[in-house]
């Protein structure tokens, strides 16, 4: 065993010094021994067979140097630091896997699209760009690629049906444009220990008249936020002072845009009923016609970006940030705010990404028990006053492999081999244990996750539940994600800073979105699936029509409603 570990180390050291590593089964076996073991959905014979396929398929590309890029999250750090060197040692293809900010990934991709210069040989970029890739036709259709130029380098054991996010990376034309690499959902996070404490439960019921539990609606979330903010929780093992009932972030930064486009608006009830995204009005408030052509964003054109539900969504976020959240959160970005609940003074957080799970289960944290189980749990997020059954209730990030047409065929083939390696059944279970971002059904159902589930606060139960299909990425209504996404943080940042009211900020946002749609329409670059704006009408015409957009409700705070977490979990099983 030690010899095999050493052989991997020697191979990796040789790569570091620019010397040729051997591409054979010895390197593969050493990798399987040292890194994978039984943390795989394939048995050892299956693992070796898959590795042999990679070795054989990589023969024409040995010595080639390939560059790929992804955002910096735990899963991609593991790929870059562990899986890329292993792939290099096993196949002889030298992989450089760069890690940069998510906004920078989009910028590099946009530059490659505009210039035609091959900056990276493959990108892991969010499936939120599916509408962009489908309309611009600058990303290779993987459906065509796997049947044509990529056929000789497509793993017969890839098993596309096993990828839980493939429907999110498939466009209305039925073509697969991206291969899911990792997924994480935006869920509700709360202190299970505090919520189950008898004194806390009694005090909450005495004040609000209903049981403390997982909030089903925003009214309950607000009541719970108010209840815990400033409360002495020392009797339940928490801090005596500095307790807050909400956590969020508000800095004028690109991540502020994702905080809203990542389904906050549909959670409030903006947009239409439909899965995986609202039809015809989605969670960005953009309406499309029967041919999937974007026709408007403002209410006057049938959009919902500035309707009453959208204004309510932004108003509540700002109100809770100011009243129930640590004051410093108003100046934080997504990355800075993420670790704060682990410090032990936050009671709940509605807008919480499961990508933070790995950082929240570290031994010794104030939110962890000594036996390695968490004091917290995750659950579905509550919905706002405008929400209707069947409307999207949450966001799921699907970081996916994307091959651009501007990448030369041989480089794309070599990069495609690496993309399949890091998502293969051989390595996916181990990768998922490291990053906790599931992409394959076979991984979610693996026995090792049944065993680990009690230590992950509901993550495994959520991904095994029928509920997970209601969480989805940005859909195909968005014709140019890079151009439209930047409008969100700039306009909502004005509302966060108090420079504009939520209504003024959203009026500005929808008009700016329509300017982009209009420019795309005039340019004609997206052909007969590009935008075709409706004529403006009296907004009341659209408000009187069924579905989105909607008029203001008389009562935006109905009775709070909660559910027992343990009953919720039972309903999933």
User: In CATH's first tier, which class of the domain at 2-177 and 397-467 applies?
Assistant: Alpha Beta
- Give the overall form: globular
What is the CA-CA span between the terminal residues? 41 Å
Q: How many helix segments?
A: 24
Keywords: Signal
GO molecular function: transmembrane transporter activity
InterPro entries: ABC_tp_sb, Bact_solute-bd_prot1
Protein name: ABC transporter substrate-binding protein
SSE topology sketch:
Blueprint: H1 2-16, H2 25-36, H3 44-58, E1 65-71, H4 74-91, E2 94-100, H5 102-115, E3 122-126, H6 130-136, H7 142-147, E4 179-190, H8 192-195, H9 198-208, E5 214-215, H10 218-228, H11 254-261, H12 264-268, E6 287-288, E7 294-296, H13 308-324, H14 334-337, E8 348-353, H15 357-360, E9 377-379, E10 396-402, H16 409-422, H17 425-435, H18 441-444, H19 447-452, H20 459-464, H21 481-496, H22 502-523, H23 539-544, E11 562-563, H24 565-572
Parallel strand pairs: 1-2, 1-3
Antiparallel strand pairs: 3-10, 4-8, 4-9, 4-10, 5-11, 6-7
Helix pairs in contact: 1-2, 1-4, 2-3, 4-17, 11-21, 21-22
Could you characterize what this model shows?
- There is one protein chain.
- This protein is of the alpha+beta class.
- The protein has a domain at 2-177 and 397-467: Periplasmic binding protein-like II (D-Maltodextrin-Binding Protein, domain 2, 3-Layer(aba) Sandwich), CATH 3.40.190.10.
- It is 43% helix and 10% strand.
- It contains 24 helices and 11 strands.
- It has helices at 2-16, 25-36, 44-58, 74-91, 102-115, 130-136, 142-147, 192-195, 198-208, 218-228, 254-261, 264-268, 308-324, 334-337, 357-360, 409-422, 425-435, 441-444, 447-452, 459-464, 481-496, 502-523, 539-544, 565-572; strands at 65-71, 94-100, 122-126, 179-190, 214-215, 287-288, 294-296, 348-353, 377-379, 396-402, 562-563.
- Strands 1, 2, 3, 4, 8, 9 and 10 form a 7-stranded mixed beta sheet that branches. It has a two-stranded antiparallel ribbon with strand order 5-11.
- Strand 6 and strand 7 (294-296) form a beta hairpin.
- Helix 2 crosses helix 3 (44-58).
- The longest helix has 22 residues, at 502-523.
- It is globular.
- The two termini are 41 Å apart.
- Residues 1-7 and 13-22 have low confidence and may be disordered.
């Amino acid at each position: 065993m030690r010899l095999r570990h050493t052989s991997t180390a020697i191979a990796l050291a040789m790569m570091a010094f620019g010397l040729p590593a051997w591409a054979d089964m010895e390197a593969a076996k050493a990798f399987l021994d040292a890194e994978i073991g039984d943390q795989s959905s394939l048995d050892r014979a299956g693992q070796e067979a898959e590795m042999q396929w990679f070795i054989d398929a990589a023969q024409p590309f040995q010595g080639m140097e390939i560059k790929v890029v992804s955002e910096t999250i735990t899963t991609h750090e593991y790929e870059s630091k562990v899986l890329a060197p292993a792939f290099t040692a096993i196949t002889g293809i030298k992989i450089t896997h760069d890690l940069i900010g998510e906004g920078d990934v989009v910028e590099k991709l946009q530059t490659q699209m505009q210039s035609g210069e091959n900056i990276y040989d493959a990108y892991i970029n969010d499936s939120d760009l599916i509408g962009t890739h489908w309309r611009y036709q600058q990303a290779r259709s993987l459906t065509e690629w796997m049947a044509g130029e990529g056929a000789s380098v497509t793993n017969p054991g890839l098993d596309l049906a096993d990828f839980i996010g493939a429907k999110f990376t498939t466009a209305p034309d039925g073509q697969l444009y991206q291969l899911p690499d990792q997924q994480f959902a935006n869920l509700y996070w709360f202190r299970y220990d505090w919520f189950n404490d008898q004194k806390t439960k009694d005090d909450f019921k005495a004040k609000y008249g209903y049981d403390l539990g997982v909030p089903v609606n925003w009214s309950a979330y607000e009541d719970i936020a108010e209840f815990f903010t400033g409360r002495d929780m020392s009797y339940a093992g928490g801090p005596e002072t500095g307790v807050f009932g909400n956590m969020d972030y508000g800095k004028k930064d690109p991540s502020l845009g994702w905080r809203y486009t990542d389904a906050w608006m549909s959670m409030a009830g903006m947009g239409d009923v439909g899965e995986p995204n609202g039809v015809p009005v989605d969670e960005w408030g953009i309406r499309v016609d029967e041919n999937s052509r974007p026709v408007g964003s403002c209410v006057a054109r049938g959009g919902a970006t500035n309707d009453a539900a959208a204004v309510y969504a932004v108003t509540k976020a700002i109100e809770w940030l100011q009243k129930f959240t640590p004051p410093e959160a108003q100046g934080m970005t997504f990355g800075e705010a993420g670790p704060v609940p682990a410090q032990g003074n936050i009671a709940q957080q509605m807008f919480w990404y499961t990508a933070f799970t790995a950082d929240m289960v570290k031994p010794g944290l104030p939110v962890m028990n000594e036996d390695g189980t968490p004091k917290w749990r995750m659950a579905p997020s509550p919905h706002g006053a405008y929400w209707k059954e069947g409307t999207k209730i949450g966001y799921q990030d699907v970081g996916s492999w994307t091959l651009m047409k501007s990448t030369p065929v041989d480089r794309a083939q070599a990069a495609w081999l690496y993309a399949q390696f890091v998502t293969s059944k051989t390595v996916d279970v181990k990768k998922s244990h490291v990053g906790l971002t599931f992409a394959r059904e076979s991984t979610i159902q693996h026995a090792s996750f049944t065993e680990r589930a009690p230590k992950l606060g509901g993550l495994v139960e959520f991904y095994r539940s029928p509920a997970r299909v209601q969480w989805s990425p940005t859909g195909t209504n968005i014709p140019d994600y890079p151009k439209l996404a930047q409008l969100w943080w700039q306009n909502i940042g004005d509302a966060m800073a108090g420079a504009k009211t939520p209504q003024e900020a959203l009026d500005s946002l929808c008009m700016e979105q329509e300017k982009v749609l209009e420019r795309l329409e005039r340019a004609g670059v997206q052909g007969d699936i590009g935008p075709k704006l409706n004529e403006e009408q009296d907004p009341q015409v659209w408000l009187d029509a069924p579905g989105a957009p909607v008029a203001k409700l008389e009562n935006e705070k109905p009775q709070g409603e909660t559910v027992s977490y343990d009953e919720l979990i039972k309903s999933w099983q």
